[in-house]
Amino acid sequence: MTETLLELINVPRNHVLSTIHNYLTKMTSNYEPIRRLPNMQDAGPSELAQRDNAVTKLRSVFGLRGYDRAETPILEQTELYLRKSGGTLSSRLYGFTEPGGYEVSLRPEFTAAILRQTIDNMTDSNAVRIMYDGPVFRYARPEDEDGLKTRQFTQLGAELIGPSSSDADGEIIAMSLEGLNCLEIADTRVVVGHVGVIAKALEAFDLSERAKLFLIANISELKKGGTNSVLEKAATFGFLPDTAVADLETPDNRTQIEEKIDRVLSDGIVGPFGQNIGPRTVEDIVSRLSKKLSETDDPDNFKKALQMLSAITQINGNANNALQNAKNVLSESGLDPAIISSCADVISSAQVEGVPI
Question: In CATH, what class is 45-182?
Answer without folding.
Answer: alpha beta
